[in-house]
Design brief:
The protein has one domain: Aldolase class I (TIM Barrel). It has a six-stranded parallel beta sheet. Strands 8-1-9 form a three-stranded parallel beta sheet, with helices on one face. The protein contains 14 helices and nine strands. By secondary structure, the protein is α/β, with parallel strands linked by helices. The mean pLDDT is 95. It starts with a helix and ends in an 11-residue tail after the last strand. Strand 4, helix 6 and strand 5 form a beta-alpha-beta unit. 44% of the residues lie in helices and 12% in strands. The structure holds S-adenosyl-L-homocysteine. The site of S-adenosyl-L-homocysteine (SAH) has 19 residues, from loops.
Length: 353
């Protein structure tokens, strides 16, 4: 029989939306399938209370795989000489948006490595054109670290949202995943800057990254509570064969789902994607994510010819949103578990006080 106080922690989380570090840690260490089932019942309820059975979709445009950084886990790190590098032109990005708009996407997510070609001026120009062509759409950027002035320029050009996972809150752990030029403190500062500028901010972390402990995860959850972002993206770490972490173990489906449930109860109005990495480690990973409290999926709108080159980790799936058929397939998957894909901007209900 497991510790009954863990159930009490979940009740407390549901009522008060916060826990102490030691309580988070005990919950994570005390994981059992029964405890998870108890959590998911509540996290689903919270999700339905805020977002009903709607699933928001975001059109993901992976517009460049050039990157100046050399993060140890990432397949497109600068040190990986086996990557076929590409970048989409402005016209190609716009054509992705056009396809996406016709398919019902009202949020475009421009994600890429930190590509020196895409200076703030060039990226602002792309953003500005998307903004004027699709005034009813949200534009999300996920282009890594920059100065506050650069973020401000992009915001002024028309970007509304920014995704920048903090990856791990703990400084020492961060240092084990990144080269010395990168720091947890700077990454976190970027998030505060983005927030101050007025972006809807998304952050998050990898689950089961090398050397991660439940203590680290407790720190991640406390940081999420403090930052109070509009979106939280988490997914399992998955090794990539051409990185220093090639031989490391992947994060698990179970722990990722458990964390999705916990985050839903902590920040009930937050946007929570069932990520590509989750869909990669298990065939029905995204459906299970939705059933644990997630409410967003991000199908790929990048041109087919570059999809195989944006390989952050091995076996990455690319949900094909290009053909209307595939959008229907996604709809069917969601319907099969009682949810529906909607055509909407899908703004966050986690409003910062
Ligand atoms: N350059 C951008 C986008 C990074 S890619 C930035 O710095 O934010 C988006 C996310 O993919 C990363 O934040 C990281 O959390 C995740 N990722 C990278 N490599 C991964 C891996 N091997 N397994 C799982 N997720 C990974």
């Amino acid at each position: 029989m497991m510790d009954p106080c863990l159930y009490t922690f979940i009740d407390k989380l549901e009522a008060e939306h916060t826990l102490y570090a030691s309580e988070w840690q005990q919950l994570l260490d005390g994981y059992t399938p029964r405890l998870a089932a108890y959590l998911f019942e509540k996290s689903r309820r919270a999700r339905i209370q805020f977002y009903g059975h709607d699933v928001y979709i975001r059109g993901l445009i992976e517009f460049t795989n050039y990157c100046r950084n050399n993060c140890y886990y990432c397949g497109i790190r600068s040190g990986n000489t086996h990557v076929h590098r590409y970048r989409l032109t402005k016209e190609e990005i716009l054509s992705c948006c056009e396809t996406g708009y016709e398919l019902g996407f009202r949020t475009f997510v421009l994600q890429g490595g930190e590509d020196p070609y895409y200076t703030t001026a060039r990226l602002s120009d792309v953003v500005h054109t998307i903004r004027t062509t699709y005034p009813d759409c949200a534009i999300t950027l996920s282009t890594g670290e920059a100065t506050k002035e650069e973020y401000q320029q992009l915001f002024d050009a028309g970007a509304n949202r920014f995704l920048l996972r903090h990856e791990t809150y703990n400084t020492e752990h961060y240092q084990k995943l990144h080269p010395a030029q990168l720091s947890a403190a700077h990454r976190q500062q970027c998030l505060w800057d983005l927030k101050e500028i007025g972006y809807q901010v998304g952050t998050g972390f990898m689950v089961g990254s090398p050397w991660q402990t439940s203590e680290h995860l407790a720190e991640d959850l406390l940081f999420l509570k403090e930052l109070n972002p509009q979106m939280v993206g988490i997914g399992p770490f998955i090794p990539h064969h051409d990185t220093p972490f090639a031989g490391q173990k992947a994060g698990t489906l179970e722990l990722t789902l458990f964390l999705l449930g916990l985050i839903r109860l902590m920040l009930p109005g937050v946007l929570l994607p069932a990520t590509t990495a989750l869909g990669t480690i298990a065939e029905n990973g995204r459906e299970l994510g939705i059933l644990s409290g997630a409410n967003v999926v991000m199908p790929n709108l990048s041109p087919k010819r570059v999809r195989g080159d944006y390989l952050l980790y091995d076996n990455k799936i690319s949900t094909d949103a290009e053909a209307a058929e595939c959008r229907r397939e996604l709809e069917q998957h969601m319907q099969s578990i009682g949810y529906q894909v909607v055509t909407a901007r899908g703004d966050s209900l986690n409003i910062t006080p």
